[in-house]
Amino acid sequence: MYDFAYQKPSNVADAVAALGADPEAKAVAGGMTLIPVLKQRLNRPSVVVDLAKTGLAGITAGAGSITIGAMTTHAAVAHSADVQRVIPALAALAGLIGDEQVRHRGTIGGSLANNDPAADYPAAALALGATITTTKRAIKADDFFQGMFTTALEPDELITKVEFPAATKANYQKFRNPASRYAIVGVFVAQTAAGVRVAVTGAGQGGVFRHTAMEAALSKNFSADAIADVVTPADDLNGDIHASSEYRAHLIGVMARRAVAAAA
Amino acid sequence: MGFEGIGAAVRRKEDLRFLSGRGHYTDDINRPGQLYASIRRADRPHARIKGIDTAAAKASPGVAAVFTGADMAADNIGGLPCGWQIHNKDGSPMAEPPHPVLAVDKVRHVGDPVAVVIAATRQQAKDAAEALVIDYEDLPSIAGLRDAIAPGAPLVHDEVAGNLCYDWHIGDKALVDAAFARATKVVKLDLENNRLIPNAMEPRAALGDFDSMSGDYTLFTTSQNPHVIRLLMGAFVLHIPENHLRVVAPDVGGGFGSKIYHYAEEAIVTWAAGKLKRPVKWTADRSESFMSDAHGRDHVSTAEMALDADGHFLALRVSTLANMGAYLSTFAPCVPTYLYATLLAGVYKTPAIYVEVKAVFTNSVPVDAYRGAGRPEATYLLERLVDVIARETGIDRVELRRRNFIANDAFPYQTPVALQYDSGDYTATLNAALKVADYAGFAQRRAAAAARGKLRGIGVSTYLEACGIAPSAVVGSLGARAGLYECANIRVHPTGSVTVFTGSHSHGQGHETTFAQLVHSQLGVAMDQIEIVHGDTDKIPFGMGTYGSRSLAVGGSAMVKAMDKVIAKGRKIAAHLMEAAVDDVEFKDGKFTVAGTDKSRALAEISLAAYVPHNYPIEELEPGLEETAFYDPKNFTYPGGCHIAEVEIDPETGVTTVINFTAVDDVGRVINPMIVEGQVQGGVAQGIGQALLEAAIYDKSGQLLSGSMMDYTMPRADNLPNITVGTESTLCTHNPLGVKGCGEVGAIGSPPAIMNAVVDALADYGVRHIEMPATAPKLWSIIQAGRPRLAAE
Amino acid sequence: MPQVSLTVNGTHHTVEVENRTLLVELLRETLGLTGTHVGCDTSQCGACVVHLDGASVKSCTMLAVQAEGAKVTTIEGLAAADGTLHPMQEMFREHHALQCGFCTPGMVMSAVDLVQSHPEGLSEHQIREGLEGNLCRCTGYHNIVKAIAAAWPLMHGKALPVAAE
Ligand SMILES: Cc1cc2nc3c(=O)[nH]c(=O)nc-3n(C[C@H](O)[C@H](O)[C@H](O)COP(=O)(O)OP(=O)(O)OC[C@H]3O[C@@H](n4cnc5c(N)ncnc54)[C@H](O)[C@@H]3O)c2cc1C
Ligand code: FES
Ligand code: FES
Which residues are within 8 A (CB) of B761 and not within 5 positions of it... i.e. 6 or more apart? Predict the structure, then answer.
């Protein structure tokens, strides 16, 4: 790891100012992505701005929605009685991220900002139609994710909270990479008043995406059978030593059917 | 305190240290004034080094020195030696290209060390290593075995034609050819043994120290055999005589073979400590381990069995390509020959066997022994072949095995490939395993699984291995450049407590407990008065270390012999004290007794007399009670047994779940059943890892694609089943303890059991053989390909 | 040099570190608490697990400066002051849940957190899943799983409810 300066501002405004003051500055939330990257010497920030004291953690249950502060850990979401009650699929998803030790540190803000193509939260955000509130604006999930490791965030813009509308029924099915345990394919299915949304993570070359063919079929008939014949083209999917694009295409179907069948 | 002798499941003495964070591993050791080494390694598989610009690195903060291969050459430092020489079919010696400590002129695999930076802190050393500018000219490269022997393939070493290290054979070719000519049926199978990365949880580390007053060097290292390192590094690489070189292997966090070998970093830190007159420490990052620890396995083979009409094995013909990597690691050449080909008789009375092995250089990390070493490859080949034969002859796979087993009355049994088995009962372990695994009830469980949409399979493997290595004269005649005896020194202190100095090394095997049980049994000393010392060349007379499941069979036997000497001397002292004839003095339960009387002396009384020799036969006997023995085994030992795996495959995803695993092994006499179970379970976990999860994957050119735990699948708790372990022992006939060894059986017997179960589960999909690891995508494509065929039927 | 103040195993420390110093480096190198190990560089193995304000974390994936003001417990601080082993340590020994001992400190710290955070009970399946962040190359996990199940009643003072799996 290269050395860097370290700041721990006590409010969001100071954090934004610190990030704005130096283009090479980098925020750290749980550090579960940033620190491994720094250890591999793949990134060289001048200043690391620690968000731990910015007061962005916390979960509130509203009428028909859950709002999660950016610094809320995966473990807090997984164990939250509110999340379990309002959007059980979201709590279950948080419990599938990494391992317990990672979940004790890693945050929802960090996960969404990072937009790893194999991360889990992006699937939930996209399928549930979450709204991501930042220090500058509110961004719809549909506009937030802009390709692998790329989001709508500007360099000095921080996620402050994420609001997830509750779904009538939802479920997330993850097929883990056997080595890293990230998603090879993760499918989040949500049935809402506005229709059915299906988001796929782990598979797309451009990161998380919505599966419109499945959405159309499920909007007519919310059952696993309805998507049994929906073919997912392998063309734009990732292939690597763990799974070919064809296998990923196939798994999207399997995970989607299982998610629909299990949706609650 | 209950019974603690041989056969008792005594809780381990070493655990208190490990459980409270007081283990003492190499990286835990720090010396005053210590510097840190960081090694710059090749990032490409094959290239000429045109120049190394060290200026920026030398100017980097905290840097004490930068050394390259040229600096080592200028100091007349030797290359890393190979401990075994194999001869070609024509009698000429194998190709043995130089293995420089730091690359000179060329790099030959990703991870090949090019330069070392030594600095005040770890981070400063890393910063500076990155500042080295290396000018490479890339050369064509190859990593795959078949590619490497293809005509016109790029050469890893210019002087080694065809990348062929050796072309070796064993067995009677004419006899085998004749048997094939008259066979009713021949079954042939092509198969690979997947390349593995050992990944002991403790990364390798080395700390060199130099005392400029005495000229003494000390190396602390993560080694399974410190004396071997002292011998190889002292004599061949750094030219330091034994009296000036101490090698200490303190607590070592797992080895599995990967910490047997003499590695470049050990020589680098020792040499650099001498040059800089400061201690120098190096600790591998896990990413470095992936590209610098010796890998394991990596065979491509063709096997053919000639059969008579009743399914009796008439002859076996095998031809194997074995990957050596870019250089010969310490034991590498013997693994695919004497630890592999000689095992191809297995538990079967196949009368004629012929094996050809070509060892091949490639632009990849050196390959050497990894848990089981050669024997898993042999077992996998045989046990997969036997299952294919069963399928193709229609003979039940268990019955086919029974029909070909070496009978219980055939021991000692001479195989057609050099080994002589001393004892075994393959039917007993098979029967016991079938019972424990409820083999008879499988059909029902398969039907129940099918009703849940799952494909269930069961797989059996009946295996044998040779361990307790090894008779020195025998291995010497086969090309070993060392002896493979073991040494033990037993020191009975004046008050009767005992310290054992053993040349075996424990890195998880529990020697501090098992060996203490031996002493407790033989000398009657209480467990808490026995201390086992290992891993320090300054304390232990000599040692060949721990690998090949040799610690108890060879190291333990040396202890027994040393204790015999202690008792013999004690009897003389006791006879003197009790005014009896030596022949009348018996030793039992820690007491010397005059036969037929109630006169006796405890061991502690004798040892006190030995160290305070006031009333003592001083004319005939030296004072003191300390004896040393070297034990050279008469033969290998031959553990064997039966492993049964039951798996379920999800046809939608191809995911395999191991439902249960049964291992019934004959490991000879069991000293501590708790430790034996643990050893077998750990070995089985590695075997399941090989069968289902683990693969070192290189691209064609030699870039390692599975170079971290993000891409190399290590078995985790949720990948593994409960592992039921049983033992059905016959005793080894040629060592004093009757022990055979249990360290490797788990990793040897299990991969074919799993793969036989996987193939069994997919029986309806027209599959004959599946290469390891049986990953989900692989099985899914097999299932996909099988579907149309079945639908068409 | 930057300073960090934290409490480790009940003792307060203020030490100088680089900003890039990892918590595990502070523990091992600055404080000499070498019971916490480093087995990987990709946050996969769990050899480095300690408790930070009561929760298990990977000390290789945290900056020392992030632990400012925190209470850290390492394997050295798990046994009682008089040396009495924690029930988890006891059960690891009783069930032979360690061989080389390298993964053991992290494994024990994760296991303690796992049992503490499941007062309702723990099935074998949950134990295996709960160990996802800890690798052991020696034991095959079989005995580790047994040890954790055996520690549960000792830590919660009641029998382990039969799992409804
Ligand atoms: C062993 C391991 C396994 C893992 N497995 C999974 C898995 O299965 N699934 C999965 O989804 N993830 C997995 N992760 C990643 C984990 O979920 C991370 O926690 C997450 O991706 C990043 O969150 P963080 O809080 O740790 O962010 P950090 O690492 O602190 O930051 C990540 C990036 O986000 C930026 N950032 C952080 N917070 C904000 C904010 N509020 N606003 C704007 N930018 C911000 C940072 O500047 C940085 O660029 C794993 C990680 C590890 C170490
Ligand atoms: S050292 Fe491997 S996870 Fe921390
Ligand atoms: S006991 Fe050796 S790694 Fe777990």
Answer: B455, B456, B457, B647, B648, B649, B656
Identity of the residue numbered B322: A
C144 Cα nearest atom in ligand 3: 4
H or E element: which one contains A5? strand A5-7
Q: Is A75 on the interface with C (CB under 8 A)?
A: yes
Positive or negative CA dihedral for B509, B510, B512, B516? Answer: negative
List chain C residues with CB under 8 Å of B200: 100, 102, 137
Q: Is B642's pLDDT higher than 70?
A: yes
Asked whether residue C162 is assigned to any structural domain, the reply reads: no
Could you tell me the CATH number of the domain that includes residue A15? Answer: 3.30.43.10
Any domain includes C146: yes
Number of structural domains in chain C? 2
Res. B718: pLDDT tops 70: yes
Which residues lie closer than 8 Å to B725 by C-beta, 6 or more apart? B663, B664, B665, B676, B677, B680, B681
In angstroms, the Cα distances linking B658 to B325, B463, B647 are 32, 20, 4
Measure in Å the smallest separation between the Cα of B359 and chain A Cα atoms: 27
Kindly state whether residues A63 and A45 are assigned to the same domain.
no
Residue matched to tokens 């099915």? A173
The predicted pLDDT at position C163 comes to 58
Strand order in the sheet with A195-201: A169-176, A183-192, A195-201, A209-210
- CA dist B736 and B734 (Å) reads 7
CATH number at B78 reads 3.90.1170.50
Is the domain of C128 the same as that of C152?
Answer: yes
Single-letter code of the amino acid located at A3: D
Contacts 24+ apart (CB under 8 A), B57-61: B57/B115, B57/B117, B57/B128, B57/B129, B57/B131, B57/B132, B58/B128, B60/B117, B60/B119, B60/B124, B60/B127, B60/B128, B60/B131, B61/B119, B61/B124, B61/B127, B61/B128
Q: In this structure, are strands B164-171 and B352-361 parallel, antiparallel, or unpaired?
A: antiparallel
DSSP helix/strand/coil, A16: helix
3-class secondary structure for B345-410?
CCCECCCEEEEEEEEEECCCCCECCCCCCCHHHHHHHHHHHHHHHHHHHCCCHHHHHHHHECCHHH
C-chain residue closest to A75, CA distance:
C55
Contact residues, chain B, for C34 at CB < 8 Å:
21, 24-25, 27-28
> What's the whole-number average pLDDT of chain A?
97
Q: Which residue has the tokens 């890893």?
A: B156
Residues B611 and B756 in one domain: no
Q: How many angstroms separate the CA of residue C102 from the nearest CA in chain B?
A: 5
How many CA atoms within 13 Å lie on the side-chain side of C114?
32
pTM as predicted: 0.96
B713 with A179: Cβ contact below 8 A: yes
The parent domain of residue C93 ranges over 87-156
Residue of B nearest to A254 (CA): B652
* CB distance C100 to ligand 3 below 6 Å: yes
In a domain, C81, yes or no: no
N- to C-terminal Cα distance for chain C? Answer: 53
Domain, as residue range, for A175:
59-263
Residue B490, in any domain of the structure = yes
Same domain, C71 and C118: no
Residue C165 lies in a domain: no
Domain holding B308, by residue range, is 299-469+635-792
Asked if the model's pLDDT at residue A126 lies above 60, the reply is yes
**A133: β partners:** A138, A161
Helix (H) or strand (E) segment spanning residue B473: helix B472-477
Query: What's B653's domain CATH number?
Result: 3.30.365.10
Q: What is the model's pLDDT at position B468?
A: 86
pLDDT of residue B2: 80
Q: Which residues of A touch C22 (CB under 8 A)?
A: 1, 35, 39
Q: Supply the ipTM of this predicted assembly.
A: 0.97
In a domain, B743, yes or no: yes
